[in-house]
Design brief:
heterotrimer, A mainly alpha (277), B mainly alpha (252), C mainly alpha (84), A: 277 residues, mainly alpha, two-stranded antiparallel sheet, 9 helices, 5 strands, disordered N terminus, C: mainly alpha, F1FO ATP Synthase, 3 helices
Chain lengths: 277, 252, 84
């Protein structure tokens, strides 16, 4: 209890007000909830700790987060089996599974062809796979016992690095040395002679790294934030009814949109690197 | 419990009280600033929706639906801030210290200002979406998709601030060093204010893109692509703020 | 807690200043670049054939307005790592 009445001039009256206000709000609620320590507790416990496999390879210590790895393989198995089942007997009048798959693949095919032109066909599998994997990864948390692998920075950073490598190797492949020259744009022009602009080079390089970081962090932060919201609400409502609906709403809403944004951004970066204008 | 006066608030026996104080203050910043931003943003959306309905009474159902969807997405920034304030108010600390106290205050500042910026930007996008829908009611499908994509990218700013706030709340800072404490406060300010500008900026970009889609729906793929590119570049200063915040938390 | 020495105060305020510097320094470029992106979208909506030129101009304008953001970043990094 903090007593500010030791300050000169603060009378009894003010002291009593301060006393009343310094008590925690909603006394009955807080009595049961104030036992949520922020570092370790039932439910909120392990919020900062993850189970890891630790082993050393040639003297270097390697740590692998177990749960995202297992979940990622599960999702891969899911899509491989679904793809195999759906394309087993392709019919002229497709059944429901084939219709859905055709819808997804067709939509992304059109999108890639619109954005990338002739060369679009080559990048369509990458963009579509990013979308399909991430959308299932974001939603999988609804099922009890399963966790989203995109909640871990390693997964999202891996995807962002894949996109980075694809974008820059494609750019170099299609534009050769002009690709590096473009990093110096816009150049300083003195009487018709173009001088490479070092300032722009620094800005462009930093910008490219910023793109990778923002690409990874956007997905990671959204999914992690959603899961922590559900965790806190579960604590506050004592796991009564609300959390599962909240999880489904957040998983489907934020998850699908973020997966779409991730794939679209990957497509946009590829388009900027390879499209001639 | 012995009395904590202002004299020994900053002494070792007052640390528990100081941590609680700063937690409450942080919660106040978080939900207070988030409410400001969300209120203004949602107000813009509602304003344009009402104007649109008077201009085009036949489309009032779809305008209402679009407005509600947009406002739901804008609210999510405030919900992030609300969750952080709840964590700050109702959590208890096993290891209270000066650093932890300022870390909690910084967490509140971070997510509060971050949510304000993101919600403002999101609201601007939703406002132009409703305006565009009123003018061209047939473009509803493409308009909704573009608006949702734009708002999802706008929310990234508050997500960065949320990540910093969560790190500040969950990590343990057992020391009492004034330097470290000020560094943590600086991290919160950096992440918080650094998310305002990009939030509003990406919202402005999204609002014009949505306007363009309503005028020219056949160019919607091209417009979405340009909008995403522009938004990704506008987010870069929020990345810099995030990097500085993480440096201040982990590298001091 | 020991008394705070002058040197401690300077270091502490440098870290706080680094945070404030980057925080406020990110407001301007963020709003400006977003505005540029918005106007580029408007231009493309009016005239989709010019998309390439408009996009390139937008990127150039955004890169230039980024520069004050980079100045803030550099000052913040200097304040963190100067080791005073």
């Amino acid at each position: 209890m903090i007593q500010l009445s030791s300050l000169p001039g603060m009378g009894e009256f003010a002291g009593r007000w301060v006393e009343a206000l310094s008590r925690p709000p909603l006394p009955s609620l807080s009595r049961s909830l104030s036992r949520i320590p922020l570092v370790a507790a039932e439910g909120l416990e392990g919020i900062g700790t993850v189970p890891q496999w630790v082993f050393s390879v040639a003297g270097v210590e390697v740590r692998i987060n177990v749960l995202p790895l297992v979940m990622a393989w599960l999702i891969m198995a899911f899509w491989v089996i679904l793809a195999w089942w759906g394309t087993r007997r392709l019919k002229e009048r497709p059944g429901p599974l084939q219709t859905v798959l055709e819808l997804l693949v067709g939509a992304f095919d059109d999108l890639c062809r619109d954005t990338l032109g002739r060369r679009g066909r080559k990048y369509m599998p990458l963009v579509t796979t990013l979308f399909l994997f991430i959308v299932v990864a974001n939603v999988i948390g609804v099922f009890p016992g399963l966790e989203e692998p995109t909640k871990d920075m390693n997964t999202t950073l891996a995807f962002a690095l894949v996109v980075f490598v694809v974008v820059h190797t494609s750019g170099i492949y299609y534009k050769r040395s002009r690709y590096f020259v473009e990093l110096f744009e816009p150049m300083i022009e003195i009487g018709g002679l173009k001088i490479p602009n070092l300032f722009m080079f620094v800005l462009n390089v930093v910008g490219e790294m910023g793109k990778v970081i923002s690409h990874a962090f956007r997905l990671f932060g959204n999914i992690l934030g959603g899961s922590i919201i559900v965790l806190v609400i579960s604590m506050l409502t004592r796991n009564f009814a609300l959390p599962i609906f909240l999880k489904a709403f957040l998983g489907l809403g934020i998850g699908i949109i973020q997966a779409f944004v991730f794939a679209m951004l990957a497509l946009t970066y590829i388009a900027v690197a390879i499209v001639e204008d | 419990m012995d009395e904590i006066t202002l004299k020994n608030l900053f002494a070792p026996e007052g640390m528990a009280a100081l941590t609680r104080l700063c937690g409450y203050l942080g919660a106040a910043f978080a939900i207070g600033m988030a409410a400001v931003g969300t209120g203004v943003g949602n107000g813009h959306t509602a304003d344009e929706a009402c104007s649109g309905m008077t201009r085009q009474p036949a489309a009032k159902d779809s305008i209402l639906r679009l407005m509600l969807i947009s406002q739901a997405v804008t609210e999510s920034a405030a919900i992030f801030a609300l969750v952080i304030s709840l964590l700050l108010i109702f959590g208890s600390n096993a290891l209270p210290s000066l650093e932890k106290a300022l870390a909690l205050l910084a967490a509140g500042v971070s997510v509060g200002f971050g949510a304000a910026g993101a919600a403002l930007g999101s609201g601007l996008t939703g406002a132009n979406a409703c305006k565009g829908l009123a003018r061209h009611p047939r473009t509803q499908g493409a308009l909704t998709v573009t608006m949702l994509t734009a708002q999802a990218v706008v929310q990234t700013s508050v997500v960065f601030a949320l990540v910093v706030a969560l790190i500040l709340i969950i990590s343990s800072f057992p020391g009492n060093s004034f330097i470290r404490a000020m560094a943590l406060l600086g991290a919160g300010i950096s992440a918080g204010f650094g998310a305002i500008g990009p939030g509003i900026g990406t919202g402005l970009a999204g609002s014009q893109a949505v306007d363009g889609v309503s005028r020219n729906p056949s160019a919607s793929a091209l417009l979405t692509r340009t909008m995403l590119l522009g938004q990704a570049v506008a987010q870069s200063t929020s990345i810099y703020s995030l990097v500085i915040a993480l440096l201040l938390i982990f590298a001091i | 807690m020991d008394a705070i020495t002058g040197a401690d105060l300077v270091r502490a305020m440098m870290y706080l200043g680094a945070g404030i510097c980057m925080g406020f320094g990110a407001i301007g470029p963020g709003v400006g670049e977003g505005f540029a992106a918005g106007k580029a979208c408007e231009g493309i909506a009016r005239n989709p054939e010019n998309a390439g030129l408009v996009t390139r101009t937008m990127l150039v304008g955004q890169a230039v307005s980024e520069s004050t953001g980079i100045y803030s970043l550099v000052i913040a990094l200097i304040m963190i790592f100067s080791g005073v």
